[in-house]
Amino acid sequence: MGISNVGERQICHNGRPSQRFTSWTKNNPERRFYGCENYNRNGNGGCRVFSWCDPPICDRAKVLIPGLLNKTRKLESKIEELKEILRESHGGGDEIKES
After folding, report:
1. Which domain of life does the UniProt lineage start with (predicted)?
2. pLDDT tens digits, the chain, 99 residues: what are they?
3. CA nearest to 23, candidates 68, 47, 55
């Protein structure tokens, strides 16, 4: 398995360039990495070619990022709820303009 700290795109064992993915694990939230194009298809890791695109995330960011993402998702959901209420109050057919 080819693992490195921070690197460039590698060539997979199948001869194709590795693809960029984003980790959403607790230890590496939103940290990008290169891996086999078959990574995580059918629950496997592809040919196991792997390298990080981004440097390690500091411990504080590991705590903050998941909370911020959760807060963002909740706010986006609330916005969609309010848009639906607004649509219904205007007859349901009007598109809502965003500023």
Report:
1. Eukaryota
2. 444 456 678 888 888 898 999 998 888 988 999 988 887 766 666 787 888 999 999 999 988 998 999 999 999 999 999 999 998 888 766 566 666
3. 55
Residues 48 and 91: their CA atoms lie apart, in Å, by: 54
Beta bridge partners of 33: 21, 52
Give Cβ neighbours of residue 10 (< 8 Å, ≥ 6 apart).
2, 17, 18, 34, 49, 51
The pTM score is 0.61
Query: Which amino acid does the sequence have at 50?
Result: F
**Bridging pattern class, strands 29-35 and 50-52:** antiparallel
Q: Write the DSSP symbol of residue 23.
A: E
Can you say how many angstroms the Cα of residue 50 is from the centroid of all Cα atoms in its chain? 17
